[in-house]
Structures are given as C-alpha cells and as structure tokens.
Specification:
Elements: E1 3-7, E2 15-18, E3 28-33, E4 45-50, E5 58-66, E6 73-80, E7 94-100, E8 114-115, E9 125-130, H1 136-139, E10 142-149, E11 156-166, H2 170-182, E12 187-188, E13 191-192, E14 195-197, E15 209-219, E16 229-231, E17 237-241, E18 245-256, H3 260-274, E19 277-282, E20 285-291, E21 306-315, E22 321-324
Parallel strand pairs: 14-15
Antiparallel strand pairs: 1-11, 2-5, 3-4, 4-11, 5-10, 6-9, 6-11, 7-8, 7-10, 12-13, 15-18, 16-17, 17-22, 18-21, 19-20, 20-21
Amino acid sequence: MPTMLIDNFDSVAPWQALTPADMPSPDITLALDEPSPSLPVGGLSLSAGIAATATGHRIERAVAATDLTDFPELRFWVRGDRPTDQDSAQPFRLELRLGSAALPINAVGNDWHRRIPIAPAGRWTLVRLALDDLPATARGAVTRIALFVLAGDGGLNVWLDDLRAVAPAMVPDADAALLAALDGGLSIGGNPVPAILDLPGAAVPAEPWIGIVNYGATPADMLGGQARRSADYTATGHRIYPEPEAWHLNYRIEFAAGDTAAQAAMLDFVVARLGIYGTLDVGGLGHRIERIREVERRDKQATGPLLRYRLTVARDRGRAIPVRSVGEVRLATGYNEEAA
C-alpha cells in the first residue's frame, strides 16, 4: 500500500513528556524497549510509564510539515499492561491529537482527536485511525503529534511502535507483501536472487530470478462473514465499519535459471519460506497463504518447476456508521383517561 513512515520509534529523542503548563512532566517516563512480545515490524518500541497523577499531561513530538491529504488512515501498534477501551473496566487513558503550524492542536476549528483502545493481556494491537475529519489546514501540513493522558484509576505502562500513514489497496498490498517475502532472501553464487512481479513492460533481470504472477481473484465465500470493526473512538462516540469482503488471490511462482541446480535451490527456498499453509504479513496484519494444485494451459509451456499459492485477503467496503454514546435515558409516563 502507499505508505509514509512517520516514526519507527527507534529513538526517544524526538519525544518529550510535558505538563499542561508545557513544563517537563515528572509523571511520565519515556524509554526505548525491545518490542516483546515481538511485532511483525521488529526493532525497538517507545515505552511510556504513566503515573496515576499524570492526567492532563502528554507526550508529543514535532515533525517536518507532513501532507496527509492522500492518506485515509494513520496506523500504529500499541500495547499496555492494563486494557483500556469501551468494553473494559477502565476508561480510555490516551487520546491522540494532530496539529499544524496554521492550525495547532486544541486550536479553535481543530477538535480532531482519537481515543486509543488497549487490548487485554498485554497484546499488541494495530490501531487504525481515519483522517477524513481532520481539518484540511492541519491535514495538509501536520507538524505536531501528541498523546494526552485522560483521567483514570491508577497508572499505566504503554508501548508504541511503527506510526505511519497508509492508503490501503487490496491487490497491490498483497503483491508487495509476497514480493517482500521472496525478494533477495536467497543467494546463489554469492548474489541475492531477485523476485519480480510479472507486469507488462517490466524489465527482467539477469537470471536467476523468481517470477510472481497474480493470475486471478475469487470471492472467499466459504469463510463466511468477517467481523465488523469498531474504531475511531472520540469523546462523543465511535464508528462501526461494515464487514470486509474476503477474497482469494491466486499466484503462480516461476523460476528462471539456466541450470537445474539453481532452479532446485529457488524452489526449495520458496517452499521453505511459504510452506504448505502459512501466514503472510500484509499491511501489518497476518493473512493465510496456502499451496494449491490448480492447472492452467500455460503450465504446458513451463520450462521448469512452478508453484501455485492462494492468499486470502480482505477488502474494506461500505461506509462507517457513526455511533454516539448514550449518557442518560429518560422515560416519561402519562395518564390515559380513555383507557381508564
């Protein structure tokens, strides 16, 4: 997917912990940490130890003016030692805000904010935040990112990783994920073997190389309905996104080499990397990939071994339903003389 990395959290230097008076916060401790349990993105993560007295404090960083106009979502990974969301015993504890030089955070006309759910059992969660309601004056040149601490019971330890803007696209994302899994992972004669997508007019490297052909898509009806997604939590409600559509994408993997030993090495590499049944990281989420045995007429023209795989992916569709929180319900009764 088109993606823009904003922070991979390999340094604590850009971040600062501040009080509401813009002074250094004594109630938030920032550090770098190994992302345990491990994340697909790997590397380090930013940890924040937040005391019970840190309500109203924040962690924030400045960024060079960043245009998010062409990106519908922000995504990042988060985990904490206490679950905080609408279904847990604890309220939301973190609220993300964005601002620009022309329209700062909390300025009149910039009320964009998102409350961050944290899963139970210390699990990493991929948080997806829509940007469609971020004012254009801020969205076109974001310069500041802040996480505010909301009121709650007790302290909280939280870890953050891999903040990026994304524009999801089902087929290109799947193609790119498979390419990344196979490209350069094998060396023959001391040289990394490239993987290439079979695209019209694409240049072909010198042999040996691994070819990836996306040759079809079919609905994954047998999987049944996918779960609806609740997201974009705010002070007044959240959004419910419709069930995504599940699709099977079919791939043919070919091996171009001048000798059978190189072909055998590439075949063995792909089988070891993808297996019979496995999981492929697509856009930060694991998707099922499996070996299939379909046969095409083109198979008779093959000069070497080939493999077929089916990758099951999901495509968002439809519009989100806004849901407002209900704080009070009143029921009025009256006396009906006719009924009496």
